[in-house]
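ok so i was messing around last nite and threw this chain in just to see what happens. nothing serious, just curious
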Amino acid sequence: GQLVGVGGSLARFNIFSNQMYALNYSTLQVVDISNGAVPVAGKKIELSRVVETLFIESNNLFIGTQTGMLIYSLADETNPVFVSQYDHFQSCDPVVVSDGYAYITMRAGNRCGSTANLMDVVDIRTITTPALVKSYPMTEPYGLGIDTKTLFVCDGSAGLKIYDATDP
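result:
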């Protein structure tokens, strides 16, 4: 498959090859867009969690939920298959992925729950067993992005933080 574009950490839909993947509260909807004039709804997957964001990297779909990150394989683009998960306390949870690491921000307050504001760096080089590398305290993280080895975190009143991600 081919990634058409790169969605940000707050994306609720993304395109990979001839499929669009969209989130709706607790479901993942696959839509065949090979004929852009006539999109066709495909598989709908119940995720049993409140889903917030998705990110595609290395033929995998990374779904940020209020209680963790779900990883689905896109080896068969029309049929995403669950691979593994990384669980955390309830919070708002954007995620980006690059070079075998997932960067997950967790925000507290309002509908997000929790009282902690963190960024977890998770080793996903073995995709079936995500492992926490390190947690960084944050002020109020809202979103993040990664460009090669530069990580950008929008951290509320603390402003934009820029990290060198050459050593996650």
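not much to say yet. The CA atoms of residues 67 and 90 lie 5 Å apart.
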